[in-house]
């Protein structure tokens, strides 16, 4: 067991760590003295940090590739004896374009494959190592997009809703083993993923602020953590006043009333 200042050093595996929220989480956990294993397909923004900090290891992982599940599990097992916490944060976003004459319906499968099946594959990788920890916590990153419908988000929203249900069911099945499961629902965070958006993003925050809020919330091991609360309130209205929500964000072009 690795030691830090005489205490056992906690160990976290973070996916989607090469940019955005994942990269900010890596920095935060390192500052707090954790041993961090960071994954993504490429090192990206992690490159300098990996060279500088011996408590950080990068393990390249394309979570869509099922052939990588066993080798990555072996690599993690060689690096650490167990995982106290796993944050499955990696994800992508593409929008459906029905105005395009050749709508790319394959995109639905692509997004589901990365966001949902990629997360499932990642759970397959880490579960044995999580179960070896004394108080393990498994975290998956969904989105506030699941709280009310957004235009063009058919693929993204469905994949994040699938993650939310998957985690809530997994929580039931892992309870007996003492593995806590948390689903995180971020609002709009300024990252490479959202910089492509052309619409207004209410209550947008930095990735460092998002990582701070996630880290603080995870200490209480909630079943679910949605933030910021102001966005949750707006989406609650959208869910309970669906006609108002539809008219506000997707007005009927032929309705002149
Ligand atoms: N930003 C927001 O407003 C927001 C809101 C709600 C939820 N979220 C969720 O938060 C998570 C992080 O998003 P972000 O905004 O920080 O986006 P980001 O900066 O684009 O980060 C996405 C991360 O996922 C990794 N990734 C993508 N495809 C992968 C694959 N096939 N295998 C392994 N890793 C892969 C990327 O690394 P590589 O490309 O190097 O693989 C990158 O590290 C996502 O799940 C996103 O849906 C974000």
From TrEMBL:
Keyword Oxidoreductase: yes
A single GO molecular function term of this UniProt record: oxidoreductase activity
Record's keyword terms, sorted: Oxidoreductase
InterPro entries: NAD(P)-bd_dom_sf, Sc_DH/Rdtase_CS, SDR_fam
SUPFAM superfamilies: NAD(P)-binding Rossmann-fold domains (SSF51735)
GO CC aspect terms: membrane
Keyword Oxidoreductase carried by entry: yes
A Pfam family it matches: adh_short
Coiled-coil regions, chain positions: none
PANTHER family, per the entry: DEHYDROGENASE/REDUCTASE SDR FAMILY MEMBER 7B, DEHYDROGENASE_REDUCTASE SDR FAMILY MEMBER 7B
Similarity remark: Belongs to the short-chain dehydrogenases/reductases (SDR) family.
Protein name: Short-chain dehydrogenase/reductase SDR
Origin species: Marinomonas posidonica (strain CECT 7376 / NCIMB 14433 / IVIA-Po-181)
Lineage of the organism: Bacteria, Pseudomonadati, Pseudomonadota, Gammaproteobacteria, Oceanospirillales
């Amino acid at each position: 067991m690795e030691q830090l200042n005489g205490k056992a050093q906690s160990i976290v595996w973070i996916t989607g760590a090469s940019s955005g929220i994942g990269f900010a989480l890596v920095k935060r956990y390192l500052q707090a003295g954790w041993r961090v294993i960071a994954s993504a397909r490429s090192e990206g923004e992690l490159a300098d940090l990996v060279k500088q900090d011996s408590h950080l290891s990068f393990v390249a992982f394309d979570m869509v590739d099922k052939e990588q599940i066993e080798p990555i599990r072996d690599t993690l097992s060689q690096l650490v004896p167990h995982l106290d916490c796993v944050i499955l944060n990696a994800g992508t976003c593409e929008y459906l374009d029905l105005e395009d004459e050749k709508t790319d319906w394959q995109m639905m499968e692509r997004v589901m494959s990365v966001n949902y099946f990629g997360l499932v594959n990642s759970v397959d990788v880490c579960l044995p190592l999580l179960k070896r920890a004394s108080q393990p916590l498994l975290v998956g990153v969904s989105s506030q997009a699941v709280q009310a419908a957004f235009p063009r988000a058919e693929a993204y929203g469905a994949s994040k809703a699938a993650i939310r249900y998957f985690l809530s069911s997994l929580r039931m099945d892992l309870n007996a083993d003492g593995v806590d499961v948390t689903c995180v629902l971020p609002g709009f965070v300024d990252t490479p993923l959202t910089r492509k958006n052309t619409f207004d993003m209410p209550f947008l925050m930095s990735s460092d602020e998002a990582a701070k809020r996630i880290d603080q919330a995870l200490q209480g091991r909630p079943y679910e953590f949605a933030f910021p609360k102001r966005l949750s309130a707006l989406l609650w209205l959208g869910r309970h006043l669906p006609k108002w929500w539809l008219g506000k964000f997707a007005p009927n072009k032929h309705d002149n009333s």
